[in-house]
Design a protein that fits this description.
With about 325 residues, the protein is an alpha/beta fold. It has two domains: about 10-145, Nucleoside Triphosphate Pyrophosphohydrolase, CATH 3.90.79.10; about 150-315, Rossmann fold (3-Layer(aba) Sandwich), CATH 3.40.50. Helix content is about 30%, strand content about 35%.
Length: about 325
């Protein structure tokens, strides 16, 4: 028998609110599960070692046949599942808004219907009250022009051979086997955010951190000296110009650079962030830096000088 002091079993899952505009109206995709005869959002449990964001994209593809790019994070849902082996179960589901980028639309066995509905109809169709919290947050974001976002993935290169152990030129230092494994694992994470542009320092350790995703996605890997330690040491002008170009374009971008360069980028992004949690987090990270192999997902609305940071997600490598 479970006791009051015995911790609950945590069941982790991720989900998505696919959205679109049709005829000037905001619509969402809801799914029907015949096993439970309910209407909800595409979602499912994390696989062993899987990241939340990766699971959200994977489960949406598996359930709806749609490839969906992760956008703005939405409220997390918590609810009980009864007991298992005499212990209570608590389910945690993290959600994102998502934009459909492709896919066949073929349904898998757990889902027999997918319907695109206006927000009000989706709200009434949803079986569970808890699912309406994510819908309401997405509707509010749309009303504030903050649902249609783009994501800047700020990447610190994965673990590389140490400076003292390397006899060649510093820009040629390669990733260690641990670093290469991290670069390979990042393919799924990048795929969930679907960046259109891949920009890196020309140093081998940075380029090789993005290379597996570039190969998997078929997207061009562009190197810029201003993102290297050597280029930055010559002066921050090129770095500022590169970041300004990224913000001006306003399209999903993965940008890989070095620890000494990152504080300048994070400080610049903080200037595009309203005071609050995200602003404090950027300022703190500018001092403490990202981990090697970490990806900071920066969700922004707008472009150029009007680009505004709305939310941050840290994707840190396993310790």
């Amino acid at each position: 028998m479970a006791t009051q002091t015995e911790p609950a079993l945590l069941v982790r899952a991720s989900g998505m609110l696919p959205w679109r505009i049709r005829g000037g109206k905001l619509q969402f995709a809801v799914v029907h599960r015949p096993r439970y005869d309910d209407w909800s959002w595409p979602k499912g449990k994390l696989e062993r070692g899987e990241e939340w964001a990766v699971a959200a994209a994977r489960e949406t593809l598996e359930e709806t046949g749609l490839r969906v790019r992760l956008g703005l994070p939405l409220p997390t849902s918590w609810y009980g599942l009864g007991e298992r082996d005499g212990r209570p179960q608590l389910k945690q589901v993290r959600y994102w808004a998502g934009t459909v980028t492709g896919g066949s639309g073929d349904l898998e066995h757990e889902i027999d219907q997918v319907e695109w509905l206006p927000a009000a109809k989706a709200r009434s169709r949803l079986t569970y009250r808890r699912d309406r919290e994510q819908l309401d947050a997405a509707v509010d974001a749309h009303a504030a022009d903050q649902l249609d976002t783009w994501t800047l993935l700020v990447v610190r290169h994965a673990h590389a051979v140490g400076r003292k152990a390397w006899k060649g030129a510093d820009p040629q230092r390669p990733l260690t086997p641990v670093g290469q494994r991290r670069a390979d694992r990042l393919v799924e994470l990048f795929d969930a955010y679907d960046p259109a542009h891949l920009v890196t320092s020309p140093s081998v350790r940075c380029a090789d951190t993005l290379a597996p995703y570039a190969a998997a996605s078929g997207r061009k890997l562009v190197d810029r000296r201003g993102l290297s330690e050597e280029g930055y040491a010559e002066g921050p002008t090129k770095l500022a110009a590169r970041l300004a170009k990224v913000l001006g374009r306003g399209e999903g971008t993965a940008l890989c650079t070095h620890g000494p360069v990152l504080p300048e980028i994070l400080t610049a992004l903080a200037r595009h962030t309203p005071k609050g949690r995200e602003s404090s987090m950027l300022s703190r990270l500018a001092k403490s830096n990202l981990d090697k192999g970490e990806v900071l997902a920066v969700h922004l609305a707008g472009t150029g000088a009007k680009a505004t940071v709305l939310h941050l997600e840290r994707h840190r490598p396993p310790s």
